[in-house]
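Q: Hi! First time doing this. I have a protein sequence and I read that you can turn it into a structure. Is that right? Here it is:
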Amino acid sequence: MKTQILIAALFFSGFVSAQQSKDSLKVKNIEAVNIKKQVFKKQGDRLVYDVASSPIAKGTNTFNLLKQTPMISSIDGKTLKILGKSDAIIYINNKKSNMDSEALIEMLKSTPSEDIQKIEVITVPGSEFQVESKEGVINIVMKKNKNNGYNGTMKMNNEQGYYNNPSAGASFNFRQGKWSGNSNFRMGSWTERQKYTLSNGDPSFRNESFGYNDDPNKNFGGGFNIDYEINKKQSIGFSYNMRYNKSFHSILDITNWQDGVLTDRTVNNEDAQTRNHTFNLNYEIKTDSLGSKLTSNVSYLWFNRDKASFNESFPLDSDPDNKYSALYQSVPQIINNYAANIDYLKKTSKGATWLMGISYNHTNTDNDTRQERLKNDDFVVDPKQTNHFIYKENILGIYLNYERKLTEKLSGKVGARYEMTRSTGDILDKTGFERNYNNLLPYLNLNYAINSDHNLSYTFSSRIRRPRFWELNPSRTYFTPTNYTQNNPFILASKFYNQELNYMYKNAYYANLSFNMVEDASASDLLPLQGTVTAPKKDENGNIIYDNNGNKIMETTKFLRYIRTNYGSNRELSLTLGMNKSWFKDIWTTNYSVNLGYVTYKGAVLEDPTSAPTPEETEVLEPYIIDVKNYNMSATLNNTVRLSSKKDWFLGVNYFFASKVAMEGGVIGARQSFDISLKKIIGDWTVMAEVNDLFNQSFYRVNGIQPNGTYNNITNFNYPRLLSIGVTYNFGNQKLKKAREMKSANDAVKSRT
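A: Yes, that's right. Below is the predicted 3D structure, encoded as structure tokens:
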């Protein structure tokens, strides 16, 4: 994925309010409650990290703050993981962000951390959350105050990796009487450099490829949010967000060897641009003085990605069968989503809480893929790889939660979500399918506060994972003419069953034991399928070659096809031990965690559902067997040291390590990262310098071997060491209350674009 470090302005500063544990927190009253130490504690179904006024929360951005939060980590600077394994879904003030994943990371990296009151980590979300598979939720709670006025933020950042990548942004927020709002704009450029080493084959054949990818990106994004308080009980709001990404002249240049002989060079030149617009209308009414309320949303999402590539293969040896070839491919994708939801939160006088809701999503994706191959010095449409794929999906969801305190020490939450999915996929003039299924997804959480020092909780949840929309588009992306990725419109939704036992001691030490089961599993990454195609031999112009007797000369070509498909089931048992604590009067703050895991993957891929050979072709696919059992571990060590008594100089020293881990596609090599940062706070200005992955050790190496001896190895070195220098300036009334966050009705489809 392509990411930029840019600005966002959905967050605002305010006064600090947080419930504090009497055994782990000292409070000093000045004019209001001022938290002197951050607190990490269990509350119901979530773990709460109170970062207001802590040293870590000053002078950085929200993404870096999240990396310092217990149970959260990031090794690539592009994604966030919970407990080192679960993907994180970002909520802001209990409302899911309506940005696509790349724009969301840009927003987090450009949002001042001083705006954050607390961070809630929900490792197993309840039925009210629109999440899939084993995704966890990070809920960012912003500071609030009702002061009128305005404020804003300006930020400039420069990162030096293989290339230099600058970014900048600005935001403006206001509140006046019943009106409040915010707007933001961010822009930047990012050129990603990756170096590839690919090898595959079997005991009798070896293919090797070496090359690089330069991917330049320019990003523009922004939006606004307007909220009007009709009266003390009713509010109405409207929000709009957009993002534009331009990536022209992205070059993939690979040189290929076969059995030690230099054969050809493949160059792929790609132009792509992505446009994303989201609109949301929100209405909220409070129904009583206890906090009950009715919320409704109507949303629209428009996503458009245009991608066109020109792939050339140049022969580098004297073999007459090795010919120049070229193909042109256009892969556009348009997504329209219409959504609505109604939620009713009912609180009773006895302390119980009911949540009832209904949601509806209609999605239409249009993928008109066109491929042309060079033939007789002209480009001719390839009917096998040209297709127009239309996918329509309707999801109706009904959910109910009940939460209450059972005794002074025991509380519980039980719920269920019932989803009805109706979908059709049509490859026009070729084939199609209809897929209808219903899912009942139960949820249970029990929390037992043994005493002020000990807390124990158990959670069970059931979820499904639907394929991402781009995974369904039956198109190919070529590395070489015989090495490519293949999307799969026939992939099925996977079923997840998640259980977790969590123990916390003195709001500082925790242990988390989890067990996850997956049925109809699909690989977390693409599976490498090797095979051969036997077809009539053709000359450089694509004409069939005959022998002296008039018979077609047949030739056999090996291929490597990366595909995402269902294969079987997997199981994962994981234990995480962690600590979050400050030492020497807050001079040294530590956040350490160690994760121990055992995983099993079982299944096989015996055929390629996307394969459609012509009558003259014979395709033989090597069975891909998955039978994996693996122990693994990872560790995260984050340290923040205050260097001055004025609390204006801070040093950060972080280390991450992940052992070898076996996955469906092979064994991922060990990775580690050593990061160091220095920041200086000067009034409303903050200057921060960081070096991420100082020793260039966080890159991917995957080795995969099958029982029959076929193998596939990949090394992707993306120059992970980054030097970053950022300057942030905050102006205006920093105690301004932000505009009301609104939940978008089409949140459920955001992560699938």
